[in-house]
């Protein structure tokens, strides 16, 4: 495939163009998505304003959720592009590019350059991976660090280089700075399982492993030690106990993010769209490639308990064959299997948790398609037809789903929470439909190279269309940025107070550029609005109607905005006498504030 560009520089350029097409358009247009983007971007902003690059804080409180690497990269982006949505998301986008290139190198070194190129295109155009590239959280960073770690290890394993631990110490250290212990534990588990499978555990008995330990500590330890000293251990305790162990062992799922045992089967099928239509054939191809030599009966003759256990483990692993392709397939299976099983066993489940296995799955799918192109695998005609039918159904499903979400087609399960405007993207469903039809036409003529080209172009256009316009259209139904736009343009430069009652989104703090108080009682609201300082209260419209008769003084309703998070109107009320000012963030024309006397 792509024989005219069968060299590394051209492949890099093509992957960069695809990344730019899928990841950059409208990257900074939508407002921050709550809660993660609002928290992360605001935390980085607090570091920027305070000059304290060690302690993560949000709304003047310590934030225990994530380590500091994402915040530091956002700080660098803020310094270059200003404090805005584009800068907040840019580190994730660049990390995604790094992961795409690393996936290419993985496929190239494991199999050949065609597999590498197709693997890079597959991972770049998978919808969940693309979503992570547009989202200001650490998932893309962790995926990049994990992919680099396992690429370095596998390349060194193939070449017999014993210094791989030196570089993987750096990449795992960055992974731990990006998202915590999973950046070290899971890649290490993949390497250990692979060496066990290959009967090469003796490679770990090497003094050079100490170099990896040292580099890991030099990269990761200083910040963890510093933040622990600054908070007297509070940050480390909160991060490890609440945001790692609790997520792992809480059977109900932390913050109600649980799921059934098949959760990640479903999430992989959805998140890997449009390429998930080939997951079934790819699994079949993996099984076919792993058929090796007969198992050795001698291992079962061990008498000791430990030896018997070891023999049992090895007995049930397929016997390694001598082929480099089978060796690479085993490595990728270890990679995908460790991440999939670990997060399936964890109590807390979210679709983005398994993102680091996407590069391995992308290369396995690319391997299947490349073997099919070369005639090396007998992909049954019915299996190919079924995959293309599923691709067409993806187009139908996306079109119908967007019509439902946009409110054109009634969907009772949405409970009225529509996103008006997104229905225009239903036309994007024609891309998988057309791509499936054209690919089927080439399949009937046995023009397999053209078939793969059609699939790649279809996937890139489909994902790029949704990524560029979907978030921007959905942003119209989000309230925080527009609500802050109702405030006076100079509110960040003078002494005013801002609070919420019964409603809060982290991005409010980012856009207000100051602390936002959170009230839970009516008396707090009354005291707040009775204070002599100019005060602005953000709350649900129905709760404002209930509170109005109970409040005193001259209050002004500045306006409101429907919020998809709450499924209702959110309003801004102030006790400031001046009215009719123009807010600093909203560019649309606004009605003159309503003056309401609540004196009794």
How is this structure best summarized?
By secondary structure, the protein is an alpha/beta fold. It contains 23 helices and 8 strands. β3 (497-501), α21 and β4 (517-519) form a beta-alpha-beta unit.
Give a topology summary.
Elements: H1 8-23, H2 36-50, E1 57-58, E2 61-62, H3 69-81, H4 85-110, H5 113-125, H6 127-133, H7 139-159, H8 164-179, H9 182-197, H10 209-231, H11 234-249, H12 263-271, H13 279-289, H14 305-315, H15 324-345, H16 358-374, H17 381-405, H18 430-444, H19 448-474, H20 480-485, E3 497-501, H21 507-512, E4 517-519, H22 522-530, E5 535-540, H23 541-547, E6 554-563, E7 568-574, E8 594-597
Parallel strand pairs: 3-4, 3-5
Antiparallel strand pairs: 1-2, 5-7, 6-7, 6-8
Helix pairs in contact: 1-4, 1-5, 1-19, 2-3, 3-4, 4-5, 4-6, 4-7, 4-16, 5-16, 5-19, 7-8, 7-9, 8-9, 8-10, 9-15, 13-16, 15-16, 17-18, 18-19
Characterization of the model:
The protein starts with 7 loop residues before the first helix and ends with a strand. It is built from 23 helices and eight strands. The strands form two sheets. The chain has a six-stranded mixed sheet with strand order 4-3-5-7-6-8. It has a two-stranded antiparallel ribbon with strand order 1-2. The chain has helices at residues 8-23, 36-50, 69-81, 85-110, 113-125, 127-133, 139-159, 164-179, 182-197, 209-231, 234-249, 263-271, 279-289, 305-315, 324-345, 358-374, 381-405, 430-444, 448-474, 480-485, 507-512, 522-530, 541-547, and strands at 57-58, 61-62, 497-501, 517-519, 535-540, 554-563, 568-574, 594-597. The protein is 58% helix and 6% strand. The chain has 600 residues and is an alpha/beta fold.
